[in-house]
Specification:
alpha+beta, Alpha-Beta Plaits
Length: about 90
C-alpha cells in the first residue's frame, strides 16, 4: 500500500479539475486500486491510499491523472505504508 499526500491552494484550475479527478478515483476504487481517498477537514490537502506493487506503479497512476499537474495541487509526498488493520 502507498500513501499519497497532497497540498492544495484554492486556484480556479484545481477546482475545475476536481470533478474529473474524483470520478477517476471512484473508478480506481471499484477496481480495488484506490482503497481510500479524501480531502483533509480544512481542505488544505488530501490523502489517497492505493494498493500498488511498487513505486513505479504509483508514479504511473499519478501520471495518468492530469489533476496531479494542475495548478494548486502540490504532491507533498508518497510513502509506502504497511497497515496491520484493514
Amino acid at each position: 500500500m502507498w500513501m499519497i499526500e497532497l497540498g492544495f491552494t484554492p486556484t480556479p484550475q484545481r477546482l475545475a479539475a476536481r470533478p474529473a479527478h474524483r470520478s477517476r478515483l471512484v473508478d480506481l476504487h471499484h477496481q480495488g486500486v484506490v482503497r481510500m481517498a479524501g480531502p483533509l477537514a480544512d481542505d488544505s490537502g488530501a490523502v489517497i491510499i492505493v494498493a500498488a506493487p511498487d513505486r513505479a506503479a504509483v508514479d504511473a497512476l499519478l501520471a495518468a491523472d492530469p489533476y496531479f499537474s494542475t495548478a494548486g495541487v502540490d504532491l507533498l509526498g508518497i510513502r509506502e505504508w504497511h497497515p496491520f488493520v484493514r
